[in-house]
Amino acid sequence: MAGVESNEVPFDDLAELLSWPRLEPFLAEAEGDEQKAREYYEWNGRMASEAMVSVAQLEVVVRNAIDAQLQLHFKEKERGIPWFTMGWLNERQQNGIDVVSQRLAKEESDGTLRKTRDQIIAGQNFGFWESLLVASEQNLWDQCLHKAFPYGLGKRNQIQGSLNKIRKFRNKLAHHDSLRQSNVLTEMERIFETAGFVSPLAEKWMRQATRWEEIHSECPVKTKDVVVVAGNVAWEVYKEQPFYVCQAGRHFRDVEYLAFYENSSIRKEVPKIEWIRDDVEWTESHAHQLVDSGNRADKKLGELILWSLNEGAHYGWGYEKYKVFKLTRVGNHYSGHMSLRDDLPHATSGRGSAFTQRQRYVSKRSLVVAKTTLDLTEDN
C-alpha cells in the first residue's frame, strides 16, 4: 500500500552484501524482477538446507557402514588399535586423519572435546570416504568394502560414481549456488538410492525425514518448468510404458514436466516427472534384482527393463546403462498429468528448422495457451 514503509532490505543493498555476480543468476531467472529474485534466492537457501540434511544423513550411514567393515577386516578389536593407524592409507588419506586428530588433540587440551577414535572417524569429510572406493582401492573393495553395500550391485564403480556425484552436489549446496541448473529431482533420488545400497531401512527413514518435495514445489521462479525432448522412439515408448529413457549422464535442468516433440508437433500429453534414476544397468539380472527388492519404484523400473529387453527390443535398446524418467500416465490428472487441448504444431519447416533436435525448455504457462510453437519463443 502507498505510504507504508517496507521493512525489507533494499535490493541494491542486498546485492552489495551478497555481491551482484552471486545474485545475477537469480535475477536472470526472475526476468529482472527484483522481488522475485529475492524470493528465489531465499527459496534456494531453504532448498539447499533441506537437501544438505539428507546428504549429511547419507554421509553418516555410509561412513558407519565402511568403518564397521574396516574394523572387522583389520581385526581392530583383537589388535587394540584403530584401522586408520595401521599404516596402509595413502598420503592424502593419512593427511585427513592427521589433520582431524591434531585438531581434536588441541580441543582436548582446551577442555572442549575429548579425542576418541569415533571423533576422528566423524571428522573425516565426504571425499575421504569416497577415496576408499576409487579404482586403486579395488583390492580393498573385493576383500571387505563390498560388504558395506549389500543391497547394491556389488560393483565398486557403482557406489563410487554415486558418491562422487553426491559430493559435487553437496559442494553446490554448501556454496549457495543456484540450484536451477541442477536437477534436484535426480540428485535427491541418487542420495536416497545410495542409502538403500547400505540398508533399505536407511533409505526409508531418510525419505520420511525430509520435506524437500514440499519445499521444491514452493520455488517462486518456474518460468521454464517443462523440458521438450525430441524423438519418435521416445513417444512410442511412452505410449507403451510411462517412462522416458535416454543415455546415462545426460544433463537436464530442474523441471517438473516432460513433453514430446514428434512428427513436427509437441504432443498434447505432457506427463509430470515422478522420479529420475541415472546410470541404470540395463541387464536382465539387474531387472530381476529390482523387481524382487520390495521397493515399488524399483519394481516398476525392473519391469521396464524386462519389457525393453523383450517386447521393446525393436525400439533400438542396446547400451549398458541409461537414464530413466518415471512419468505420469495419460489421463492421470490426479497425479499432476497435463493434457493440452491438442497437439501443438511447429510453425516452421525446412532443413534444420525443427523445434528441437535434442531438448528445449519452455514454461507450462505458455505451453497451455500456445497455438503453435511460435508462441513458445519467449521462453527461450
TrEMBL record:
Q: Which domain of life is it from?
A: Bacteria
Entry protein name: Abi-like protein
Native organism: Glutamicibacter mysorens
